[in-house]
Amino acid sequence: MTPRTRRRTGLRSLLAALLGGLALALTLAGCVGGSSESSDASGSGGSAAEGRAVAAPGDPDVGAQDAVKTRRPPAAQRSVISEGTVVLRSRDVAGARFDVRQVVDRYAGEVSDEQTDTDDDGEVVSAHLVLRVPSADFGEAMADLEDVADLRFSGRSAEDVTTQVIDTQARLRAQRRSIARIETLLDRARNLRDIVLIESQLTRRQADLDSLEQQSAYLRDQTSLATITVDIDHARTAATDGDRTGFLAGLAAGWHGLVVVGVGLATAAGALLPWIVALLVLGVPGWPLARRLRRHRAAPAEAPAEA
Question: Distance between CA atoms of 110 and 298, rounded to whole angstroms?
């Protein structure tokens, strides 16, 4: 082999070695990249698994808190019984009563009770009304009623019965479930003794359910509608007070006194009349007898004087 051929062979061997090393390097790089990707994928999967583990309901730290937040019931709406009292004074009681009814109609309420008093001339002198208006409009209705006439008194009260309403509703649900279970037992009963016992329990619990339903209806009515009591009295005018002096006032007072004296004399005469009649009945027949006795006594007294 010539030196030239030998040189070419060495170059080819070197080139083959370089290409083999490059291929080996590329292969190693691919393996490292694949391992990295696998590690990343494993890490991602581990993170996802850890995330699922963290979000799992069984985790005592986060899962329990999420479960509590999910199961937490909404805040209960407050149930309040509102009552108010308004005392008014007006020269026109009938007109003030009409204005009160207009206020009730404005808030879609109702008049549950009304009492009216009149004088001898048929004029309304006092009125008593019990109103029911929606609880949401209680404050506005009270303000409007206070402006109907001269305000003499105004009072308000509120009783929070939220706990009582919640308790009544819970007892209603429990009582209905209990009755449903007893009815199921009654359908399955075959023994007469068992049927009688189950029916007695069913009757007692049905009575308890009726009582709870009445309590619930009462609370629902009292909390949905507020109660307002309105009293209207008649106000005396200045002209009426001025009529108490002057000629006409004196004439009226004198006539009133005369009537009072006449009534007193008539009353006394009526009280004495039975006695006068009784004395006349007893005295008229006895009057001749009394005269005879008087003469009989006078005759012996005159006889000694003549002797």
Answer: 94
Q: Mean per-residue pLDDT for 91-113?
A: 93
What end-to-end distance do the CA atoms of the chain give, in Å?
233
Average pLDDT, rounded, for the chain: 76
Global pTM?
Answer: 0.52
Give mean pLDDT, residues 30-59: 43
Q: What CA–CA distance (Å, rounded) separates 117 from 127?
A: 6
122 sits in the region (left: phi over 0; alpha: psi -120 to 50; else beta) called left
Say yes or no: 90 and 143 in one domain: yes
Last residue of a domain, one of 127, 156, 185: 156
Give 16's pLDDT tier (boundaries 50, 70, 90): low
Residue 95: domain span? 80-156
Neighbour-count burial of 161, counting CB atoms closer than 10 A to its CB (0-12 exposed, 13-18 middle, 19+ buried): middle
